[in-house]
Amino acid sequence: MKSVTQPLYLGTAMALLAWSSGASAQVTRDADTDGVAEQPGEADNPAVLNTIVVTAQRREQDATRVPISIEVIGGEDIADTAISTLEEVTLSVPNFQITQTGLTTQTYIRGIGSGNDPAFEQSVAQFVDGVSYGRAQLTRAPFFDLQRVEVLRGPQSILFGKNSTAGALSIITAQPTDYLEAGATATYTDVFEGFEGQAFVSGPLADGLSARLAVRGLTENGYVFNTTKDRTEPRLDEIAGRATVRYESGNFTATLKGEYSKFDVEGRNLLVSQDVATTNAAPNVPLTFAVALTGAGLPGTLQDTSFNYRRQADQDEFDNTEFYNGTFTTETDFDSATLTTVTGYVGYDRDTSGDLDFTSASILGGLTHESYEQFSQEIRVATDDSLPLSVIAGAYFEHNQLDYSDVTALGSDLANLGFGVIADIGAVRDFEQTSDTYSLFAQLQWRVADGFRIIPGLRLAIDEKTASRSLVARNGAFSYDGPLVTNPVPITVLQTALGFSLDNAVAGAGHDLNRSRSEKNIVPSLAVEFDVTEDILLFGSYREGYKGFGFDARSNNNTSFGFDDEEVSSYELGLRASLPGNRASFGVTLYRSTYSDLQISQFDGTVGFNVGNAGETRTQGIEANARYAIAPGIAINASAAYLDFEYLDFRRGNCAFGETPDGDVVGGVQLCDYAGRRARFTPEFNVYGGLSVDKPLFGDLRLKINADASYTGEHNVHDNLDPAGVVDGYTIVDMRLGVGGENWTIAAVGKNLLDERFRTYAAQVPFASNVGANTQYATASRPRSVAIQFQVRY
Asked: Cα 44 vs. chain centroid, distance in angstroms?
């Protein structure tokens, strides 16, 4: 049954258009798109590329003059191709990956990212309109009405601060205009029974005062079939709104933005992807986990054990998040400098329920509640970069608080597996953390000679954190506040068999942790730029960075609590070039980065995760991109990356199923040595190519084509680097074919047209190893889809 909210979304969009129906037909194209636009009467003009303007260095620059490995996706391309999540952006950006696990969303650049722990700060920093979005859940914030997205690869610690050891995402939302315009887009995807509606209206309110209002709604019924519930999942229901007001007077500009969104999910795209026996239950009868469940009196609870987009799950699964943001930005222009202030408030509340045994039996489940609030203030000054000596300098403050609770729910069917003593018990964890960051930063540019510049930078930061964590066993599997367990027998079993350290008064090992910590960091950088000609730039850089220390929110044992800073030293050498007349551009970057104490979150082999630090890790490789205007209205763009990733020193890796331990002993358990291995999500090769066409047909009709293809090489997606987690290389092809007039377009939007189906994450199914089965679950990619899209603009 289709959601009743679909007419609401479409009605809201049409209402916004009606409000602006008196507007002129003036339309301005986003200067950040990748293609070229041929307008009527321009057929005889030479083909030129649009200039891509970015703020990757906190000032407006042509992307071909930025000494950073950068990819830019324009807001118009995002809207046209129906991109609604950051995960979809990864198609056109090599060495950039986002995946959803059973617990959170993970973002990686050049193979470096953050794991499942909710207390992790991010190795890939995300900024929206200059405000840090410092938690993994914030990468799921709705994606709509944007000006552009900048993906910066490599450490960006001077101007973007801590937590950008792998890179940074800078998202710029569409701003109010001084003329009246409006638009709406409706997209229907039959295979998912999905409907998405977006609309915006923007224009002047009074002299010097303008505003923009944008809304978005989405419903979708998913693509993995849950045989237990007889439905496809995950089922999405999202709604979002953003209002922005801008005031301009002389040399002063102030912008106030408020945003609210609610995104709810029922069910998940997780399924059992393999169930391999290592022993026999009887002659010629392999003892798989499915066979073991049947023998334990739970027949039919695990039926699908291959990667076939079918699952069994009986628990009431949901993931409901409310997100809110307020941003106030001012800019004051002086004769040779600009003063900018950015004040931000970000927060969210999230509640989830998950089936963690991946069967229709009541064995293991989980509840989580997560609440996050963040206030930040940045003040910076940027002098005119044409001066012999120019500077970007400022100060930054951030305060945030994370409250996290979860329940590891031990279901009633554990009795069938011989664990009846701990059935219907919940291990309830409470974690709180407050964090304050103070920093000063400066980046100078010294024009040593004509065409030769030296750019040193420095950031001084102080981080202070206080955290607490407790863990107790309570009666009632799915309850945060059930009575405490007082029987010493289940407490002993939970601690010895499943690795819990519990704070129950009877037989508990103790788990009421409190700790505070403060660290100072000084982060330097140095870049050198040389203009070979007006159109060719050579650069080299050395950058350091760090991701802040923290406290483990999710470990089940009382010995794993704190973890150290993650640090990086990185070298880059690059070339940026464009042809005279701006018909083509090309960029290439060679990089080598060494990470110390890389922060790692890994499955503990039972029902928990532990956080630690890998000793030393190296990533190195090459990234290149190019754009070329074939003819007026026709352009191609391409990018490619080669990644060489290696753990140099990491003796605390979790062992894969059946692997012989050869690493350090931690908590009485010997782990595995990962030295010499590649990490998860580190394909050796990534290649992308795109074509954009905007040509007249006849009369006022125009043909608009966007075609994109990307290849991702073989890589491992398993949490413990199990060889069975290796995913073969795959090619994703997307295409949009549209026809339209001056103010409207109707289009077909195809995604994953080759119907590539692959795992984006994999890990072990709990309890399966007890019977000697290598049983894994995986996150399933989205299959092929074709949508119909209708756009109107005024």
From this structure: 43
Alpha-carbon distance of 9 to 237, in angstroms, equals 11
pLDDT in tens, 458-510: 999 999 999 999 999 999 999 999 999 999 999 999 998 888 999 999 888 88
d(CA 439, CA 132): 14
CB atoms within 10 A of CB 285: 11
588's tokens: 């290439």
What is the three-class DSSP state of 453?
strand
* Longest CA–CA separation in the chain, Å: 87
The whole-angstrom separation of Cα 692 and Cα 628 is 11
Q: What is the full DSSP assignment across 519-575?
A: EEEEEEEEEEEEEEETTEEEEEEEEEEEE--EE-SS-SSTT--EEPPEEEEEEEEEE
Is the Cβ–Cβ distance between 622 and 593 less than 8 Å?
Answer: no
Question: What single letter denotes the amino acid at residue 213?
Answer: L
The DSSP letter of residue 655 is P
pLDDT for the residue numbered 606: 67
Which residues lie across from 219 on neighbouring strands? Answer: 195, 237
Low-confidence spans in the chain with pLDDT less than 70: 1-46, 102, 602-607, 667
Cβ–Cβ under 8 Å, residues 217 and 196: yes
Listing DSSP states for 265-309 in one string gives: EES-SEEEEEEEESSEEETTEE--HHHHHHHTT-TTS----SSSS
Strands 773-780, 270-277: pairing kind: antiparallel
Helix (H) or strand (E) holding 76: helix 75-80
According to the model, what pLDDT value does residue 16 have? 43
Beta pairing class for 53-54 and 389-410: unpaired
* Secondary structure of 47-72 as H, E, C letters: CCCCCCEECCCCCCEEHHHCCCEEEE
Rounded distance between C-alpha atoms, residue 87 and residue 285, angstroms: 42
- Predicted confidence at residue 99, as pLDDT, reads 83
Q: Report which secondary-structure segment, H or E, holds 8.
A: helix 5-19
| Counts of helices then strands in the chain (DSSP H, E) | 6, 46
Tens digit of each residue's pLDDT (9 = 90 or more) over 712-766: 999 999 989 999 999 999 999 999 999 999 899 999 999 999 999 999 999 999 8
Among residues 677, 788, 716, 767, the alpha carbon closest in space to that of 288 is found at 767
Distance between first and last Cα of the chain? 34
- Cβ neighbours around 114 below 10 Å, total: 25
CA–CA gap between residue 365 and residue 368 (Å, rounded): 10
Phi/psi for 383 (5° steps) reads -85, 165
Determine the Cα–Cα distance for residues 583 and 478; give it in Å rounded to an integer.
Answer: 62
What is the rounded distance in angstroms from the CA atom of residue 66 to the CA atom of residue 537?
9
Q: What does the pLDDT read at residue 136? A: 83
pTM of the model: 0.90
Residue 369 burial (CB count, 10 A): 15
Q: Report the C-alpha gap between 88 and 105 in whole angstroms.
A: 13
